[in-house]
Amino acid sequence: MDFTEFKSRFQREQVEEYPNEVDPKPLVSILVLTYNHVAFLPQCLDSILGQKVNFKLEILLADDESVDGTQEICLQYAKKYPGLIRFFQHKKINNIQINKLDTGIFNALYSLYQAKGEYIAYCDGDDLWGDKTKIHRQVNFLQQNPDYILSYHPVIYFNDQSSLPIKNKNILNKDLSSEELKKVIQQPLLNTVCFRNNMKNYPAEITTILNSDNFLISLLGHFGKGKYLESIKPSTYRIHSGGIWSMISKEKKFLSKIQSLKTIAHYYGQNNQKELSKYFTTEVYMYQKSLIFINWKNKTYIKMLKNLLDYSIYSIANSPILLDLKPYLSRKMQ
């Protein structure tokens, strides 16, 4: 799906780009996606504007029609830094909904398509970077190591209930092979990642899942390896009540993850990447079993039966025998 098709399918109202003087050929594009981040956005933008670099960059500041004063902050920064900031004013009517929930997927993909740099980095409006040399060092590494598609670094987690960092046992602190990236065995947090802008088109399936960052990392894995740069100071990832993902229950997170894995498995199956499709199908089974156990533990037996039925149907539909018969049955039905 190229940018023209994307807009044709999802854009109902024109996205407004505030006038700017940003260089048309930056080396790096920094994507800042924001919605109701009035309490955090100035820190985020200041941490980006404070980067020490010797190359041209652009900051794509994209707001999803905030109602808490975030838009006004975006406008202030866009006026103050016209040579660095491209401010996009999105409309809620363009939001892509998943399970009746508004998402930031349109905003995120629109920004990816608009990025002009050879490299792309992320920092959501409620996060911030902790190292002024972050981008310089990540880009420098990628320029010198063409077999790597992306680099990433340490991160610390905070929530809005405490000033102390949250301990996270699953923090990624090692390099990743191309295969590990493709399978998303471990995923670097996007606000630590800098990657080559190799993808000009994106699968339409990425618009149908909440965990679209999983899909993006998997796709990037086809272009190379991932490098962990331990010496870069950690970025900050905030967990707060205003975050879309934070507002979702544990059970709904599992359901969302299952749907994402199914979509990725189907995508790779359709594109004749059978090993990857098989891997993600197995992951679906694992998450489905975990969800059924959660239902049993919480004594939500009706939900357990429904999820058990979903598990059984998916298992049958993806059994090796039926998968082998699918091409034959498809020909017979034509």
UniProtKB/TrEMBL annotation:
One Gene Ontology MF term: hexosyltransferase activity
Superkingdom of origin: Bacteria
Glycosyltransferase 2-like domain location: 29-166
InterPro entries tied to this protein: Glyco_trans_2-like (IPR001173), Nucleotide-diphossugar_trans (IPR029044)
PANTHER family: GLYCOSYLTRANSFERASE, UDP-GLCNAC:BETAGAL BETA-1,3-N-ACETYLGLUCOSAMINYLTRANSFERASE-LIKE PROTEIN 1
Name of the protein in question: Glycosyltransferase 2-like domain-containing protein
